[in-house]
Amino acid sequence: MSDNLLIELLTEELPPKRLKQLSDTFAQCIYSGLLEAQLITEQSRFISYGTPRRLAVTVDQVRPQQPQQRIEKKGPNVKQAHLADGSPSPALQGFMRSSSITQDQLVIMKDNKGQDIYGYTFEQSGKTLEELLPDLLHKAFSQLPVAKIMRWGDSSFSFVRPVHGLVVLHGKKIIDINLLGIQSGNITLGHRFLSSQPITLSGSDHYAEQLKEEGCVIARFDDRKKLIHDSLKQHANGLEVVGDDNLLNEVTSLVEWPQVLKGQFDKDFLNVPSECLILSMQQHQKYFPLKDNQGQLQPQFLLVSNLNTSDPHFIIDGNERVLRARLSDAQFFYQTDLKTPLIKRLETLKQVIYVKSLGSVYERVYRIKDLARIIAKKINADILTCEQAAELSKADLTSEMVGEFPELQGIMGKYYALNDGYSELIAEVIEDHYHPRFANDTLPRSQEGIIVAIAEKLESLVGLFACGQIPTGDKDPYGLRRASLGVIRLCIEGSIPIALNELIEDCASTFTSHQINSEIKTKLAQFIIERLKGYLKDQYFSFEEIESILPFAESRLDLLPKRLLAIREFSQLSESKKLAAANKRIKNILKKNDVNNDHNGDFDQLTESAETNLINCLKTVSTHVELAMSRNDFNMALTQLIPLAEPINHFFDEIMIISEDLTIRSQRISLLLAIYQLMQQVADIGSLDA
Question: pTM for this structure?
């Protein structure tokens, strides 16, 4: 009869940042393996469990044995299975011997190529759960997302962490398995400190309940997470709990019996920038800082203990002492850093190598500064602010605080700049120039911040492409894909009216000691455009729409969404289909006739009515399109093309383009070229003709 299956691995402390993923993957692999082995149906459900010391899963309605199995054995090709006298060939005889069958038991079936072959089908009893589980578990272990595995003792077994216990229960029955040198049973352990005796599990049905009641263990990850989340909110007493989902997951992975407690620290530490204090609390101690409704950090924090005691003041006191030492270090680093102005730190950057072939960070800073000045001048931004912020942008890398907390680069630069008397705008740009740091991150808050951020990312892209550090496969040690996406977002969402190829050229010009050739620039442009496709896809533009604007991808990125919206609206018009088809047809004709992209507009030999009508329409439409394009009014530019649809169709119906008169032929092709170039002003309309 079907029954619930429980599998639990009792281990040493598992990696907290991977526990959720490990437990979910383990459970999913077990479920998938049972489903593939026909031991469960798709109606069966599973529950994953994960604590610091265990991975477990329960699956309901698991059969004790597979259903009857129909087995097919494939033999030789029918055409090659008999000799000239009709007797079985050696190949067929060998197949019958290996299958222990006679000739009358053979059946004809198809092979993978659809050819007739001899075969044999038979029924056999399905394997038992006990027989199948060892291979199923080994397969699940191999699929766990673990970079490094461990060995322990003098055994040859390996796993994420040393394994000390194995429970395999089908209902109340112990499934006898020896795995990783451990014999399965029904005994597990509870909380490391709150439960002293082994727990004998009564069966697979009440695993979580029994662990909670007898072992002080909340086995389900999501249950512990919710308990911690709710308890944090309760203990905050109206204050804001500072901590993202990653911190909550990590803390959930560190405890089996969570208890939230509140501690305090000295108000004097609030003189240190709050980002330093928060990072110190979160990263080193896994605490949750608290802020008031004005966003001001409070001298209090919440911690999640793995112990339950009637008098928790010893736990709180111990954590407060540890935190005091951490915050004292942060305070010392900050006060020490304030003694050295940012401008004086620039010399130290000469000793910091960026990339060997690209020199020091000091050299990099001045390339960023040069590019920021060029961009600022072109778009009439505050040049001096951009130059000063770019020059100081990397100075905090040599500070004590950033040495301890690299995540604070830029942030500390802001505070040190303000301490040195620079304007709030310059300080803000120094902090913001790293943005966007990841997908969906915020952009810099000012135009000057956007300019320096573009300069910083482009300098990295151009320089690293120049020295051959182009990402391949999954490898991208310098984060160039992220930098490319950053440039795209900064240009589009920051409305920077400069062409992509122009930005790359400007950046290349700042590398005075390196020759950035056209091949490198082209490769980089294509690399960025590949990221651009993904970005636009995430903005819900279709493949056809994106393809239509790719000819303009190296021009102004900020205009691409406007082009796309115009082409989307245009494609809804009935006339767009005719124009798209005509565009595609013209493009094919131009390809076959190898024309130059230049035409002089001389159509004096084209006198037939279909030709003159098209020429007159073209002149009128060109004037309207040119006016619309001067205003970047792409919707209007596309709409103005509509009158061309009928004259173009009449032209194709009535005119033989490839005339024997070479002058007439040349002028007709030139006319098509003029039309094609006009229609390509906004997008490649022909790509809409799917």
Answer: 0.81
